[in-house]
Batch of 2 targets.
Target 1
Amino acid sequence: MKTNYINTTKKIEGIELAAKAIKNGKLVLFPTETVYGIGANAFDEKAVSKIFKAKGREGDNPLIVHICDLEMLKNLAEQIGEIEQKLINNFWPGPLTIIFNKKPVIPYNVTAGLETVGIRFPSNKIAQELIKLSKCPIAAPSANISGRPSGTKIEDIIDELGKKVEYILDDGMADIGVESTVVRVIDDKVHILRPGKITKEDIEKIGIKVIIEKQIMEKCKSEEKVMSPGMKYKHYAPRTKCLLIYSNNQQKLINEINKNIELEKSILVLGRTSNLEKYNTQNKLDMGETLEEISKNIFTLLRKVDSYKVKLVIIEGVKKEGLGLAIMNRLIRACGYNYIEL
Ligand code: AMP
Ligand code: MG
């Protein structure tokens, strides 16, 4: 299949063609403010099944449905409670996915057989325009082969997914870099099923009680029932062995990383800008300084590490607070739970 590439900063009218492809049951790679998505018409069961095939995604891992206005939501969600409405008023459009009871129009392959559906109204203008012109909600997981780091720029994913889609909408590097926060309201409390840019603190600020699911940082047993099916899968992992190290004492952290460099010479370090010069190795990658920078860079860096052909990658951890919780959730999985906290 020939894929059509559209640089949206140069050629905005191409979105119409991509929307037509969505209507015709085809797949499109498109930008959102979190990561790139691989999307299909959410009402078209056959089109949705192509997403699972393209990604090699397990059928029990549900997709998020993307909308561009609240009218669309009414057609998809069975009821919108008071707390959900408050979340919508405060955080949509934006990087927050809310779980609702689904209406029958949504095929079961979108929700992996569940009676609930995750819905998000992205703030990225290209995403909004694509959904609007397609005249249907778009089911889309992150654009990556399952298990690999999510795609935050087209150059990173074109080899693995480029030939499997009809159109590619390039909007440069994604702003946020980690996927949306996924929440579900139970008994008037918000449960965070996957941490993201919208944090526990952000939600508490609008007067809602928040519970962080403990499974966010733990390895799930395969038979365990999880609230968010994606949590049980290996994710974001480079092929090279990775070790995540964190201490809130900077000197301890740097000493521990240097100790590991002594033991294993074939090594690559991913560290904060201000710490990089303190590591006794030539092989280093700059994660950025702020949590926002680290969040934006992390997936593209995880995709780079294999090209170094080293035996071990050491990644500096961050404090599990605010956006740091989302970063650590992704990094712990990227390292296959190979994690030291000092
Ligand atoms: P991805 O689109 O690859 O970022 O993955 C979407 C994730 O959202 C899934 O892996 C699930 O963990 C979560 N999710 C989507 N729909 C639901 C749902 N109905 N209930 C619980 N979690 C969901
Ligand atoms: Mg994903």
Target 2
Amino acid sequence: MVILDGKKTSNDLKDEIAIAVAKRRSEGKKIPHLAAILVGTDGASMTYVNSKVKSCEKVGFNSTLIDLPEDTTEDQLLNEIDDLNKDNDIDGFIVQLPLPKQIDEQKVLMAVDPNKDVDGFHPVNVGKMTLDLPTFLPATPYGIMELLKRYKVETSGKNVVVIGRSHIVGRPMSILLSQKRDVGNATVTLVHSRTKNLEEITKEADIIVAALGKAEFLTGDMVKDGVTIIDVGITRVKDDSKKRGYRLAGDVDFESVSKKAGFITPVPGGVGPMTIAMLLKNTLLACENRD
Ligand code: GUN
């Protein structure tokens, strides 16, 4: 069993990005600048956004964190987005999800300038991705593809089962892995909460991407020997034995599944760090696009 080490791989990627930034600096070119908007005080979102900003510093990017209160109105948020769209120094920005209930997420995502949409969530960019045109790929699926590529996990002709149909992970992952591309050419099945006989389907999978958001959902009896497991889940589970009162659990029961897996991502230290690295890569790309 080989651990797909997202922490190490993301550090390799960050080193590569830092070299590209240093080169830009020496050539007198613009330094990439990423902004992140966080609305409210959701613990997990705050952790993610802070770690995105910290990673910017690590590779030499400029970064801006816009922290808005929980009761921010939709209009106020749309105004902030408009300012970032117009700000010539900002190459790319993200609005951390989920948003408070008074704000229409779709309206917000559509307000982002597609050229600065480094999350790849704007319908124009989703459309381009679907048509296999150059665009910003959503960071989590992009990170998974990079991990599979760097560990030379064969995807061509393989049975891939994606569990979960979210707009951020499951849906784009299923599209990308079925495309005619380097990490792709797979036979993809997307399963979800209405799927019947889920176990029969996962047992036939060569690669499983678990992205449903249910702690330790996938167990050893649901997979075949040699399977490659990508665990996207990261749920806080109450655990009084921990100082912070919780532990982080993936969508995969690592204990039983790792006994059968050929390759497996850990939680934490698997997909999570890759997502951040790919966001940085998209920001570098956004900056280069403006040269
Ligand atoms: N919330 C969970 N994942 C993501 C992500 O990749 N981008 C943003 N903006 N919000 C998220």
